[in-house]
Amino acid sequence: MSALLEPGMLVRHPEQADWGLGQVQSNIDDKVTVNFEHAGKVVIDMRRVFLVPVAGPDHP
Length: 60
Hints:
five-stranded antiparallel sheet, globular
């Protein structure tokens, strides 16, 4: 799944709804850096967490 995430894409963390909407900053070797609305910049190990792509900010 991580190969599908590109910089600029919008995502949500399935277990951290309070983090809000996140924007992918980078994707290198299963490590995806995401800037979340309420959690800031977080590095996600895609081998452990499946980020949920979002079509746009109007689509929760």
